[in-house]
Amino acid sequence: MKRQALQIGSITLLSRIFGLLRDIVIAKQFGSGLVTDAFFVAFKIPNLLRRLLGEGSLTVAFIPVFTESIHKEGKEKALRLANTFLTLLSLILCFVSILGIVLSPLIVKIQAYGFDSSSYKLAVLLTRITFPYVFFICLVAFFMGVLNSFKHFFAPSFAPVLLNLSIISSAFLISPHLRTPVVGLAIGVIVGGFLQLLFQIPWAIKYGLSLKPSFSLINHPSIKKIFLLMIPSIFGSAVYQLNQFISTFLASFLQRGSISWLYYADRLVQFPLGIFAISISTAALPELSDHVSRSKKERFERTLFEALSLTFFISIPASAGLIVLGKPIIMILFERGRFLFSDTENTYSALFFYCLGLWAFSGIRVLVSAFYAMQDTKTPVKVATLSLFLNFILGLILMHPLKHNGLALSLSSSSSFQFLLLLLFLKKKADLKIKKLALNSAKFLFCSVIMGIAVHLVHKNYLPISSEMGILTKMIRLCYLITTGVFIYLFFSKLIKVKEVDIILKKGGYHGN
Q1: What's the count of helices (H) and strands (E) in the chain, helices before strands?
Q2: Is residue 491 classed as helix, strand or coil in its secondary structure?
Q3: What pTM value is reported for the model?
Q4: What's the rounded Cα separation, in Å, for the pair 56 and 509?
Q5: Which residue in 320, 325, 328, 323 sits closest to 492, CA to CA?
Q6: SS (H, E, C) 249-273
Q7: For the range 331-334, what are the long-range contacts, defined as Cβ-Cβ under 8 Å and sequence gap of 24 or more?
Q8: pLDDT digits (tens, 9 = 90+) for 56-92
């Protein structure tokens, strides 16, 4: 699992870099306000459905059943089963895409009820253009499930790079020639979705998947099982996106620009989340599913513990680093063109509160993968429902005194509650060694605090970063501060004998602390 997670993480790093470049381009060209708020709302809706119907439910429901079919019925029949499922899925997605285009006015009204007339009309237009992205990206999620089941991670991990390149290209090549320039970004989303799908096909064919429409196994029990697992997982595994949906809805009632500030802050949190937590959970799911199908309980428990411990080893210092260096990072990435210093301040304040929940966002990914590997979708749904209501209630309470920052804090709080509850339920099914995991996390937190204090002092006294400095000077200083932080964290981790350091430095195996 560690090797696969490293491979996914390396490729995802490239994708996230291009994702940041995409956001830099959007911030420079369009700033934060009516236009970007409308685009982010429009892009968030198909993105939410991507989580609901795609990798958030389809992949995690498909992989355990497909893996089980390979072991019990053989590769040839399992691929025939996948081909039948692909045919049914394509028909469903066609219907969903058409329905989404027709119902875009209602969808936008629900998502951003507080928008004024001009913002609303623009968001409806952009939503109608981007909605077919759902069709492409959900099929990408299907191919991801097939390829990951065969322990192939390159193509699914690299595909998002194509989306980011498409949006960046559209901002420069299409937007300047349109009466409403932001429409170019929406066109880029569609083209990017198509390119992602096209990129998966050669590898899928290589592993034996036929793309010819087929209904030969439509009555096979496994088809029914996949859909039955998808129904609850549509909600359970996508709770983070649903919580973001709630945040956007509530933010539409706040000061103009609030949605954009939350978006940019979330993008920075998604950077370590995507590179490490999602990479680890993506690599863990096929392996956990394989252990369950072979009834290897002890290996399942060991893999799960390693995945959680490694996730916290990275996410806890990432939180500390973003809290200490978040403002200069935002300044370097976004503060240019129409993105002002006031936008930097507001984005950083949201980032601070998101960072308080980064460990939970990361841990939830791994725990949900464990439940789905055991083909238990009911428990995550129950916990997700409670978390969703808690986020909404806290959002209503905190949005007035803390404005958009209250929405970030409510998401972090509800996600922390969700993680702890999932952990307690999973403890009943497997021996997770929670005390050992808590001890490991305490060590990670101790090293992160030392790192954070040291980097803060260096930043404040020796390497300050301000808006007046040249971009090259700011980047060199930031790179030095990040390198210093990584070195300090690894040094103290090694000093107190944290075994995860050996994994990062490739010096040894892992047997728990």
Answers
A1: 21, 0
A2: helix
A3: 0.73
A4: 31
A5: 320
A6: HHHCCCCCCHHHHHHHHHHHHHHHH
A7: 331/465, 331/467, 331/474, 332/465, 332/471, 332/474, 332/475, 332/478, 333/20, 333/23, 333/24, 333/27, 334/23, 334/24, 334/27, 334/28, 334/264
A8: 567 777 888 888 888 788 888 889 988 998 999 899 8
